[in-house]
Design goal:
Layout (H helix, E strand, L loop, with lengths): L2 H8 L2 H13 L8 E8 L2 E7 L2 H12 L5 E5 L4 E4 L2 E4 H6 L6 E7 L5
Antiparallel strand pairs: 1-2, 1-3, 2-6, 4-5
């Protein structure tokens, strides 16, 4: 049993009600952020940090005036190289102050 489970097991009914109220009110404005890949034209993709796919699509529509062709969720721990270093979307999200937010664009290489 981990510490959280043990603490919840020993919590009084009053404590449990207070915890439930805080979770519902969310005073710290905590929300789960995901990353989405949105195809904006042939071989070009925008990566957006957002709570859900609709928020990601709306962000691209309003910020860039582009209707995304599709939208897929990526894992936050997806590895990628930027220049000569490797990073993940999770590391990139830590630098953001507000969401939804653009993580970046990707242009697929065209082979002839």
């Amino acid at each position: 049993m981990d510490e959280l489970e043990e603490a919840m097991e020993n919590a009084t009914e009053e404590d449990k009600r207070a915890i439930a109220r805080l979770v519902e009110e969310n005073p710290l404005k905590v929300r789960e952020i995901r990353v989405f890949s949105l195809k904006i034209r042939q071989g070009r993709f925008a990566f957006v940090f957002a709570a859900n796919s609709e928020e990601a699509k709306s962000f691209i529509r309003h910020k860039y005036g582009i209707e995304p062709k599709n939208c897929f969720q990526y894992p936050l721990d997806f590895p990628m190289s930027i220049g000569n270093r490797f990073t993940t979307f999770r590391e990139m999200a830590r630098a953001k102050n507000s969401f939804p937010s653009l993580a970046g664009f990707y242009q697929k290489e065209v082979r002839e």
